[in-house]
Amino acid sequence: MVHENTAPNDDIRERARGVISRLVRINIDQLDDGVLFREELGVDSLRGLEIIAVCEVELGFPIDETGCIDARTIGDFLDYLHSAHGAQRTG
Predict the structure, then answer these.
(1) Number of domains into which the chain is organized
(2) Residue 63: which CATH number?
(3) What is the percent of the chain with per-residue pLDDT over 90, rounded to a whole number?
(4) How far from 58 is each of 36, 38, 42, CA to CA, in Å?
(5) What is the pLDDT of residues 66-82, one digit of tens each?
(6) Separation of alpha carbons 28 and 17, rounded Å
């Protein structure tokens, strides 16, 4: 079942990038797909959970945090969100 407020696929990446930008306090223009969460942004596990929680609210679908643990880069995380959204739409 799709939530009423679920973001369209093409919007997910930019909206999630905006969440990361706000929470990490870095200009969105500096968040290309190759930026490393831990090493470059200093995102620890608690901040990562906060990013996931805010993305869930803003994007309108649940995100399995265990699937995000392997995301080393911004691009990995955004790709995971895109695939999680696709699973929600078909599930």
Answers:
(1) 1
(2) 1.10.1200.10
(3) 67
(4) 22, 23, 23
(5) 877 789 999 999 999 98
(6) 7
